Amino acid sequence: MKFRLVLALLLLSILRANATTKGLSQIVTPELQPEGDVSLSLQIQDKRIANPYELQAEVGLTKWAEAAVFRGFDPDEWILGTEIGLLRQEPYLLSVGFVNWSPHLDVDPQPYIEAGYYTEHHKFIAGAIHAGYKNEVILGYAYDFNKTWRAQVDFQSGAENSSTIGFTWNITRDFQCNPAIYFSNDDPSRVMGYVVFTYTFHLWGEGKEKAAGGAEPK
Q1: What's phi and psi for 170, nearest 5 deg?
Q2: In this predicted model, which residue has the larger pLDDT, 206 or 76?
Q3: Percent share of the chain, pLDDT over 90
Q4: What is this structure's pTM?
Q5: Residue of 35, 31, 145 whose CA lies nearest to 89
Q6: What is the chain's alpha carbon radius of gyration, rounded to the nearest angstrom?
């Protein structure tokens, strides 16, 4: 019954993005959504980045797997993504998955592999993604000042992608805001704005246990 509820939330909430709710501003990150957590997000961004208004849902299915569904409105699109954790012994992380698969628009999935080195304050991320006909580099760095504030930068190679700088503000334990500025790789003077608001529900398993125990937000 709980699994059906999660599926219903995914189908009702959803959208397209180049990052998940746990990610940095542009790239996916190698840590996983806790099992049983469902994050619902509203993303608003410059139309040169992607859909100007998007919804998204991300669910931690197990301790080693998560899935995301994205919904864009202009154009109308449904995007799927997933991530599997191969190594989850912090500070070392290694994950594989795919993003930006749109059967609705006949767009192929973009598989990726990513490694991370996570300490209490510093998070380093590096990997590669296959997008269309070429392979691209993905890099990221975040600094956690405390449980409330994080500064972050990331980069994905390719003329159609960007470098970004932004921050994450955990307003409450379950509600966060992530604004950022994008600098286009093909023209760094082209500056674009982005912001995403996320609320996380702890429905079962690991996520619910952490919520009951008063765990702080990521």
Answers
A1: -80, 95
A2: 76
A3: 69
A4: 0.83
A5: 31
A6: 16
How crowded is residue 212: how many other Cβ atoms within 10 Å of its Cβ? 9
pLDDT digits (tens, 9 = 90+) for 147-169: 999 999 999 999 999 999 999 99
Beta bridge partner(s), residue 136: 129
Length in residues, the chain:
218
The CA-atom distances, in angstroms, between 109 and each of 10, 81, 84 are 19, 8, 15
- Domains delineated in the chain: 2-212 (2.40.160.40)
Among 31-45, 176-190, 203-217, whose mean pLDDT is lowest?
Answer: 203-217
The confidence score (pLDDT) of residue 207 equals 64
φ and ψ of 7, to 5 deg = -60, -40
Residue among 41, 49, 39, 14 nearest 156 (CA): 49
Distance of CA 35 to the CA centre of its chain: 16
**pLDDT tens track for 62-80:** 999 999 999 988 888 899 9
Q: Rounded distance, CA 180 to CA 41, Å?
A: 15
